[in-house]
Amino acid sequence: MSSPRILLTRRWPAHVERAMAAEFDVIFNENDQPMSQKQLAEAMREVDILCPTVSDRIDAEVIGEAPKVKLIANYGVGFDHIDLSAAKSRGVAVSNTPGVLTQATADIAFTLLLMAARRAGEGERELRAGKWTGWRPTHLMGASLAGKTLGLVGFGRIAQAVARRAHHGFGMKIAYYGRREAEPEIAQRYQAQFHENLHSLLRISDAVSLHVPGGAETRHLIDSTALKSMRPHAYLVNTARGEVVDHTALTNALENKLIAGAGLDVYPEEPSIPKGLTKLENVVLLPHLGSATNETRIAMGMKALANVEAFLSGKPLPDPVLL
Ligand code: DGY
């Protein structure tokens, strides 16, 4: 391939953009606004490699408009925004950036859990509004985490990093639900108890953190029935994908105190926030910050770059997405 052209759909940390531009002919989305489907399709006609993010929708139509594109090197680990079967049928390879955002995302899951359980968002809003009247024994009492059970839905890399914080740092008990039981030494590390049934996990958990991929298989895994299985004093944390939760059911559960609270970093139609949530006190809302540290965002870019380099030199992709 002679002088390959690469499209970055959003601005990346300057360090990685420089590294990419030093080697390749790179097209940047200068104003860093999300590209419409039409803009994407048009831009992709001219390029050999596409580097999208979770804020793009790389559907069959967009892929169909890009005869030259041979690799989609995603800037991020999740790839539910890419139509993999369209990529496969067009002979387009796909890579992602696993591993490098595990710790940062686990930090945000734990931030949300602590903020929800200790009512930190409520407290901050009260203080900034000038409504704090001073210390009193019954002011904004939350829940302690020590000794409580954290239920992890999915038990991959990020879930295990959350388990480490919860078990070793905060003295929580760990239970998990997944497609299969973890290796004995991993389960042992956190004394994690396996549940093959989601509802049995939800029934015994004081807090639940979601760590499953997005997409059709997990859409609305947490629906009204699942929320009813949760304990009334329990918290729900989502740093995975918005569509895993039925937000109408969640808003109803929060309004009617079916659960104590929630902490969310992801939403089904970002950047819009499901109706009703911003009015509730018992939910903490973050703007998809899971991987947002300087170190992590640079590492994600370097990983995407390594995949591009490997692809262009005919080597196996370091991080292929199985098609
Ligand atoms: C991912 O990588 O999938 C995150 O959601 C964005 O960092």
Question: What's the layout of helices and strands?
Answer:
Layout: E1 5-8, H1 14-23, E2 25-28, H2 37-44, E3 49-51, H3 60-64, E4 71-73, H4 84-89, E5 93-95, H5 102-117, H6 120-128, E6 149-153, H7 157-170, E7 173-177, H8 184-189, E8 193-195, H9 198-204, E9 207-210, H10 224-229, E10 235-238, H11 247-255, E11 261-264, E12 283-285, H12 294-312
Parallel strand pairs: 1-2, 1-3, 3-4, 4-5, 6-7, 6-9, 7-8, 9-10, 10-11, 11-12
Helix pairs in contact: 1-12, 5-7
Bound molecules: (2R)-2,3-dihydroxypropanoic acid (DGY).
Written description of the protein model:
By secondary structure, the chain is an alpha/beta fold. It has two domains: 116 residues, NAD(P)-binding Rossmann-like Domain (Rossmann fold, 3-Layer(aba) Sandwich); 184 residues, NAD(P)-binding Rossmann-like Domain (Rossmann fold, 3-Layer(aba) Sandwich), CATH 3.40.50. Helix content is 36%, strand content 14%. The strands form two sheets. A seven-stranded parallel sheet has the order 8-7-6-9-10-11-12. α1 runs parallel beside α12 and α5 crosses α7. The model has no long low-confidence stretch (mean pLDDT 97). The site of (2R)-2,3-dihydroxypropanoic acid has 7 residues, from loops.
